[in-house]
Amino acid sequence: MIMRRAALALLCVLALTGVFLRDNPLVNRAQDYAHSVAVASAATYVTLRTLNAFLSTAQELEVGVSFIASGTARPLKVLEPIDDTVERVAAMVFGVMVATGVLAVALGPMSAIGLSLLAAALAIWTLSSKGHAGLPRRLAWYGGFLGLALPIALILSQPLAERLTEGVYQLNVAMIEDITANVGGSAALGEDEPGLTEYRQLARNLWSRADELISALLAVLGVQIFRIFILPLILIGGLFVVARHYARD
After folding, report:
1. What is the DSSP string of the chain?
2. Distance CA 35, CA 117 (A)
3. What residues pair up with 71 in beta bridges, in sequence order?
4. Distance (Å, whole) CA 242 – CA 249
5. Could you give the CA distance from residue 178 to residue 213 in angstroms, rounded to a whole number?
6. pLDDT at residue 29 greater than cutoff 80
């Protein structure tokens, strides 16, 4: 009995240490993974907004026409569907980026709350020799789940996600960079301000490869959502089933 109480007291101290520890290694590793996904999302977002700005500018270019009457035309207005699609994908990527940043910030407080519940359950077990068996057990398992499940799920997601999606991710990122290589690059357009001819050449490249571009953008977005949401949620679901089983038994 004495050894059991000593072990419970030690575990309680360790749980409290995790609550007040400023640099929790478990949380830090999970935050590093979330930060890496946020950085990748930010890079994709910048590329999309640059492309969006180019398409919007190209659509506003006017040329003079004269057939029956003189006037102006916007020959690159045909790019509007691509522009709208890129803008909507950029909005979704921005949402992923913001959600990932919030998740990285919330990891610390959520883990601290869970470990506090675990420490409270261990303290009850240590100080009480009889009774209250059901409440501390549930408090311990659910507190441990809240404090450890999300960081562990994110840490496990990193190697799994890289193994499952890295090839697809790199292939589609390379395709996006190839299609948008000259968009927004002043060196590629020459020293002078780009004119209608340069915009037409770049717009023709985007138009001819629009299907590839949109497919690659959706693939990159899907990989980022899988890495930061779907895969961790699957792992968290498995950990919750385990916690609920032992909390009831």
Report:
1. -HHHHHHHHHHHHHHHHHHH-SS-HHHHHHHHHHHHHHHHHHHHHHHHHHHHHHHHHHHH--EEEESSSEEEE-GGGGGHHHHHHHHHHHHHHHHHHHHHHHHHHHHHHHHHHHHHHHHHHHHHHHH-SSS--HHHHHHHHHHHHHHHHHHHHHHHHHHHHHHHHHHHHHHHHHHHHHHTTTTT-HHHH-SSPP-HHHHHHHHHHHHHTHHHHHHHHHHHHHHHHIIIIIHHHHHHHHHHHHHHHHHH-
2. 27
3. 65
4. 11
5. 10
6. yes
Residue 137 in tokens: 């057990």
Torsion of CA 104, 106, 108, 110, to 10 degrees: -140
The pTM assigned to this predicted structure is 0.74
Question: CB of 227 within 8 A of CB of 122?
Answer: no
User: Token pair for residue 179?
Assistant: 């299609």
Residues 92 and 221: beta-carbon distance below 8 Å: yes
Each residue's pLDDT tens digit, 53-84? 877 777 665 444 334 444 344 556 667 788 88
